[in-house]
Amino acid sequence: MMRVAGFKYAAICCCFLALAACSKKTQPDLDAGMNGGGMGQAAPGSKADFTTNVGDKIFFLEDQSTLTPEASDTLSKQANWLKQYGQVTIQVEGHADERGTREYNIALSARRATTTRNFLIQQGVPGNRISSIAYGKERPVALCDAEQCWSQNRRAVTVITGGTN
Q1: Helix count and strand count (H, E) for the chain
Q2: How far, in Å, are 57, 69, 72, 131 from residue 94 at the CA level?
């Protein structure tokens, strides 16, 4: 009787192993979106459209809150997009790298957010659609003790807060 029960148990295990070997493994489709249906194919007027096709970040030089030519280009694109989609509201986040005191970085990131906000207003985006916040060094995107990380953290990010689908 024990021998039959052991045989049944072994047969059931073999069936499960055979089924597991035949199952199709789920692999991520790394090419999704390259030719439609993913990245780069964001719906016009959506957050993804703004982030992907316009750009939501600008970067600053060390201890600076003035705009670089590249930052001005990106902000001009943002302003045109925001004028096209007049119902969209945004928040400009100012950031700083981790060097410096907390107080200094809060003040610097506030100046960066204000510079960004003022540029968008000068380009024709109504000020009542734009809020700003200073994070200082509290939300870094890159963590290392080198210029390559610090330069990524010296930024202003335009975040859509309402008005899109």
Answers
A1: 5, 4
A2: 10, 18, 16, 11
Angle at 150 between CA 143 and CA 131, to 5 degrees: 95
107-127 per-residue burial string, b: 16 or more CB within 10 A, e: under 16? bbbbbbbbbbbebbeebebee
Q: What is the pLDDT of residues 77-131, one digit of tens each?
A: 999 999 999 999 999 999 999 999 999 999 999 999 999 999 999 999 999 999 9
Q: How far is CA 121 from the centre of its chain?
A: 23
The CA distance from 13 to 7, in Å, is 10
pTM: 0.75
CA–CA distance, 162 with 47 (Å, rounded to integer): 9
Beta strands in the chain, from DSSP E residues, in sequence order: 57-59, 89-95, 130-136, 155-162
**How many other C-beta atoms are found inside a 10 Å radius of the C-beta of residue 66?**
11
Q: What is the pLDDT of residues 45-77, one digit of tens each?
A: 999 999 999 999 999 999 999 999 999 999 999
